[in-house]
C-alpha cells in the first residue's frame, strides 16, 4: 500500500471545527500531511467558503481538489452515492483508490465501509485528541470546543480528552 500523504476532510469535520471556533487550527494538527477538500465537500459547506478560501490562500498544506473520478473510482462513487451523501461518497471513493486518510465523524455511514476497504479514518474527536497531545489545544479548549459544537446543534460525545484513547496512528 502506498504511503498515506493526504487527509481528505469531509464536511462534518469542517463544520465541527467551525462551530468550535477552531477551523484555523485544523491544518496545524497534522502539518506533515496535505489536507484536501474535495469539490463535492466544498460545495456542501458554502457558509465556510470565506474561511476555507483564506486558509487555502495562506497555508501550504490545505487545498481544494476537483473531484473528477474515472474508471473504478467513478463506479464506486456512483454506487456509494445511491445511499450516502455526495461529499461522503466522494471522500470514501477517493480514499479507497488513493490510499489516503479520511477525516469524517459520520461513523454510521463510513465505519463499516472504511474497515472493509482498509481506509484509515479520523473523527473530530480523534483530531481533538491529536490537537491536545501535540499541544495545539489545551484540555480546557478541547472541553469548550465539545460544549460549543454540541450547543450549536451538532453531536459530539462528552469525553475527557486527557483519557481518550485514539486507535488511529497516522
Q: Which key features would you list for this structure?
A:
single chain; 170 residues; alpha/beta; five-stranded parallel sheet; 9 helices
Query: Fraction of residues in helices?
Result: 40-55%
Strands ordered across the widest β-sheet: 3-2-1-4-5
Q: What is the residue-averaged pLDDT?
A: 93
Query: How can the largest sheet be summarized?
Result: 5 strands, parallel
Count of runs of 4 or more consecutive helical residues: 9
Number of distinct beta strands: 5
Globular, elongated, flat, extended or rod-shaped: what is the shape? globular
Name the structural class.
Answer: alpha/beta
Q: How big a fraction of the residues is strand?
A: 5-15%
Unreliable sequence segments: none
Rg of Cα set = 15 Å
Characterise this structure.
The chain is built from nine helices and five strands. By secondary structure, the protein is α/β, with parallel strands linked by helices. It has a five-stranded parallel β-sheet with strand order 3-2-1-4-5. Helix 5 packs antiparallel against helix 6. The radius of gyration is 15 Å and the shape is globular. 37% of the residues are buried.
Q: Mind sketching the topology for me?
A:
Blueprint: E1 6-9, H1 11-19, H2 26-29, E2 34-38, H3 39-44, H4 49-58, E3 62-65, H5 71-81, H6 86-98, E4 101-103, H7 107-117, E5 121-122, H8 124-133, H9 139-151
Gist of the model:
This protein has 170 residues and is an alpha/beta fold.
Amino acid at each position: 500500500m502506498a504511503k498515506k500523504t493526504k487527509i481528505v476532510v469531509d464536511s462534518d469535520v469542517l463544520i465541527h471545527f467551525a462551530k468550535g471556533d477552531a477551523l484555523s487550527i485544523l491544518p496545524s494538527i497534522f502539518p506533515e500531511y496535505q489536507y484536501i477538500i474535495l469539490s463535492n465537500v466544498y460545495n456542501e459547506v458554502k457558509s465556510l467558503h470565506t474561511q476555507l478560501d483564506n486558509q487555502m490562500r495562506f497555508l501550504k498544506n490545505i487545498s481544494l481538489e476537483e473531484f473528477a473520478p474515472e474508471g473504478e473510482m467513478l463506479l464506486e462513487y456512483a454506487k456509494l452515492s445511491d445511499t450516502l451523501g455526495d461529499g461522503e461518497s466522494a471522500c470514501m471513493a477517493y480514499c479507497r483508490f488513493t490510499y489516503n486518510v479520511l477525516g469524517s465523524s459520520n461513523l454510521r455511514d463510513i465505519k463499516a465501509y472504511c474497515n472493509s476497504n482498509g481506509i484509515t479514518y479520523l473523527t473530530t474527536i480523534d483530531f481533538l485528541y491529536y490537537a491536545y497531545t501535540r499541544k495545539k489545544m489545551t484540555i480546557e479548549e478541547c472541553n469548550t470546543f465539545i460544549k460549543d459544537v454540541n450547543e450549536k446543534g451538532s453531536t459530539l460525545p462528552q469525553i475527557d480528552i486527557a483519557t481518550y484513547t485514539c486507535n488511529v496512528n497516522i
